[in-house]
Amino acid sequence: MSVLSTSQADNIKDTLQTAIDRDANETIEISQRIWDYAELGYQEFKSSELLQQNAQMAGFSVKSGVADIPTAFVASYGSGSPVIGIMGEFDALPGLSQTVTHEREEHVEGGAGHACGHNLFAAGSWAAAKAIKEQIEGGTLSGTIRFYGTPAEEGGAGKVYMARAGLFEDVDVMLHWHPAGFNDASPRSTNANKGAKFRFHGIPAHAALSPEKGRSALDAVEAMNFMANLMREHVPEATRIHYVITNGGEAPNVVPEFAEVFYYIRHPDFQTVRELFDRLVLTAEAAAMGTETTMEYEVINGSYNILPNEALSRITYNNLIKVGGVSYNAEEQKFAENLYATLYKPNKPLGSQENVEPFIPSAGRASSDVGDVSWLVPTTGLTTACLIPGSYLHTWQAVAAGGSSIAHKGMLNAAKVLAMTAADLLQDPTLIAAAREEWEASRGEDFEYYPLLGEREPPLDYRK
């Protein structure tokens, strides 16, 4: 495959941007329908079906229900190498239903909401894949484009099961993006993460008449929490430990027969997460022993830290610079100002959505199942300003912005950057070779992949 001239490459990128603008209304409609469905992890049946139907209508071959996950799929077009994959997420978060307004107002009472912008993630990634497909179909580019439908990112680790199933083995480069309140394509790592539910079983008794006959499962949970909190002093500084008691008993006058606590362990290195999790299990075992209860635990999720790739990030960043930031019209500016006023200590000013952040490698504190993919395939990503500057994900303000025209502008920008980056890689094999060389050096010669969540089956009911 010969490398195209600069003018030819620029013409392809212009054509890709034009195609994405042409289909903007269709992409926005997909995003809005998924925003409205607001389906939780592994329950995204309508969202997944919508994306698969669009892929089939566009001429992609679609494999459904991959990795034993009903809502996961792979849509492919083209043949041969290179193989470029684009990831798309579509799960929502519980309890964050919100209308598109600057006041707290549920869209569906007690419902879920796209507080992490995965409606945009899915639709924008699909728009990029479709635009690339047209160039392959027309003979301008050669190779294979794949759109991966990846469910349950929010604690369900959908991509990890897909990775374990070998669905990324023949991919040369994986692309992804995420909505944010700013535009950035710098190489960025994340925390690795492992989560589990610890379940304690005791002996019920009347808490007033015969408490000596009982053994409290809640006491065991509290004992575990106490020891875990003491452990915080003796862990690496970058460690994060979170927990929530998901079941503490039924009535105060009954010694609890059952109690459950849900833990997350995070650290920038997945090996350290493994070690810390083993120590956490010791606190659970000790709690059960000390309270004369029994304990079992279920690993719910586990993901590696993202392995950044500067070679790929440079390509993505250059394309983001070409596309630029997001500009508001008068109506959008008013909406943004009203929503901005509700934020707690915003860290960026309004107007910064028009800029692209400088290229600075960094380390994030959140976690993503993209991490596992990045250790199996050279991977790059970006963020675009779909939310108002200074806002945070997993909030009602993120849901409100994510259903607005502000978010649609950021989503279309992301689609253009993804498509342009895929085009660069498809027409210049030296770019992929350089990325792979860096990736292999970062992983190390002795790296062997073993998922943090082990051999467990996908937790398809974890949100039920």
UniProtKB/TrEMBL annotation:
Residue ranges of the Peptidase M20 dimerisation domain?
194-286
Q: Which organism is it from?
A: Thalassobacterium sedimentorum
Q: What is this protein called?
A: Amidohydrolase
Q: Which Pfam families match?
A: M20_dimer
